[in-house]
Amino acid sequence: MSAVPSRDRQAAAAREAAAEAARAAPRPKRGGADPITGELRRRDILPLLVLHYISGGPCYGNQLMERIASLTAGVLNINPNTMYPLLRELEERGLIKGEWEHPEKRSRRYYSLTKAGTAELDRMLEEVLPFLGALARSLDEIFGELYG
Prior knowledge:
7% strand; two-stranded antiparallel sheet; 148 residues
């Protein structure tokens, strides 16, 4: 008998090892850690808020993070690892335009809304309205039920 296992035995051993690893791995929570913030993230509320704030005048990343945290009382607490890739994506899509405050020494990058960004903001506002209305009514009902 050969000391080298057959291909069938190797494949079976690999499948069993993969199945064992899958059983041992921690299972992710379904739909995110929090149903409210998870749903807000799935509904693209963050890009909507970013476009909304930028529509009021040029903004920079930290300013946007602070405004969103303040608006949501920390419920949507956005970190730089989320904000700056989003800003780059929105800029690549032509929805915002970024300019350095001091181009010669890359300080703050201010973002302005483009014409395409204005159209996307309008579209997103219309799309998300039913969800936000339902969320507001639900939270009011929960609050009323619990606290009278």
